């Protein structure tokens, strides 16, 4: 690439300040050009904190900036569709936080708007850019753990005390399936290499939190009689794990999606009849790798780690999980 991708950020969300902005700063291909908030003072404060050149008091102003190539959208889930489409119409490439949308239909509309505008669209699943997932897939494909039998994932945390959190607004796309359940679902689809054919999910919808799903446990059926079992929650002790089970062994990922930054924090383990071995993985900045992958696709037309079609398929799986939880039925995809 002959130049760096110039990023604009729509909103001053915690994930932007905590992860995305440092990720772009650590990337080889990106530069932080502008940030917008509906509160200009907040935008100016964030811009000053991170050395971002320009601050805007509206999203529209940022989209009108000709010196912005791409936007990152960390807004609440119900705003993803509107601002992705508006960004595309303004000629900006779009990296949208997960989940891509509120349903697969919205995700398809977003992807089509970006295609029609000739801009790149991607869902921000940062974990997929870490080299360890390629390594895990290589272990599975090598046959070391035998034939694949199942995947189990868990992603839970306890944030229930803060009842003003946007995650607890049903009309804003709140709930644990959207917020953290999407990770084990995404990982299973990636590692199994197929899309689920049925979903059965039980959830706890909390009256104290606008009746969003604060905890969910589910089963996703895949072709070949392989299944993902998972649980996710926002009112439970912290867990962030993944296990891949084969006929002759299994893979354990103790810190599956986010991990400690110290040496060994991203490592995983392979157990077979030969014993248990630890696979060493570098603690790279997966947000920087995400930014570089996006820039290669946007500026050079390279194939991205995950396509817009993958984002739509992921939302289709989430749709089925939510429908199952709400209706207490097994849903065929």
TrEMBL record:
Oxidoreductase: is it a keyword of this entry? Answer: yes
Cited Pfam families:
GFO_IDH_MocA (PF01408), GFO_IDH_MocA_C3 (PF22725)
Please identify the protein, giving its name as recorded.
Answer: Oxidoreductase
Q: Which SUPFAM superfamilies match?
A: Glyceraldehyde-3-phosphate dehydrogenase-like, C-terminal domain (SSF55347), NAD(P)-binding Rossmann-fold domains (SSF51735)
Q: Where is the GFO/IDH/MocA-like oxidoreductase domain?
A: 133-251
* Source species of the chain: Gordoniibacillus kamchatkensis
Q: List UniProt keywords, sorted A-Z.
A: Oxidoreductase
What family classification does the UniProt entry report for this protein?
Belongs to the Gfo/Idh/MocA family.
Q: Domain Gfo/Idh/MocA-like oxidoreductase N-terminal spans what residues?
A: 5-122
Question: What InterPro entries does the record point to?
Answer: Gfo/Idh/MocA-like_OxRdtase_N (IPR000683), Gfo/Idh/MocA_domain (IPR050984), GFO_IDH_MocA-like_dom (IPR055170), NAD(P)-bd_dom_sf (IPR036291)
């Amino acid at each position: 690439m002959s130049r760096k991708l110039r990023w604009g950020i729509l909103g001053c969300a915690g994930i932007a300040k905590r992860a995305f902005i440092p990720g772009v700063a650590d990337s080889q291909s990106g530069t932080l050009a502008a940030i917008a908030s509906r509160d200009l003072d907040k935008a100016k404060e964030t811009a000053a904190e991170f050395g971002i050149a320009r601050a805007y008091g509206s999203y529209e102003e940022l989209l009108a900036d000709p010196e912005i190539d791409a936007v990152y959208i960390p807004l609440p889930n119900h705003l993803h569709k509107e601002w992705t489409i508006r960004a595309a119409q303004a000629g900006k490439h779009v990296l949208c936080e997960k989940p891509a949308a509120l349903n697969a239909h919205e995700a398809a509309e977003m992807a089509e708007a970006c295609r029609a505008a000739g801009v790149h669209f991607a869902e921000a699943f940062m974990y997929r850019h870490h080299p360890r997932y390629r390594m895990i897939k290589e272990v599975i494909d090598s046959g070391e753990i035998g034939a694949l039998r199942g995947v189990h994932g868990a992603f839970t945390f306890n944030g229930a005390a803060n009842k003003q959190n946007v995650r607890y607004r049903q009309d804003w796309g709140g709930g644990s399936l959207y917020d953290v359940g999407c990770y084990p679902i995404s990982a299973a689809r990636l590692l199994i290499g197929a899309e689920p054919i049925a979903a059965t999910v039980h959830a706890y919808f909390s009256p104290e939190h606008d009746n969003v799903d604060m905890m969910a446990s589910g089963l996703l059926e895949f072709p070949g009689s392989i299944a993902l079992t998972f649980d996710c929650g926002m009112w439970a002790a912290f867990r962030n794990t993944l296990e891949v089970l084969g006929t002759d062994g299994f893979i354990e990922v103790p810190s599956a999606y986010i991990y400690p930054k110290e040496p060994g924090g991203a490592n995983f383990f392979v157990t077979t009849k030969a014993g248990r071995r630890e696979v060493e993985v570098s603690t790279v900045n997966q947000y920087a790798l995400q930014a570089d992958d996006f820039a290669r696709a946007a500026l050079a037309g390279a194939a991205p780690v995950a396509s817009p079609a993958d984002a739509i398929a992921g939302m289709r799986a989430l749709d089925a999980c939510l429908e199952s939880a709400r209706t207490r039925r097994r849903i065929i995809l």
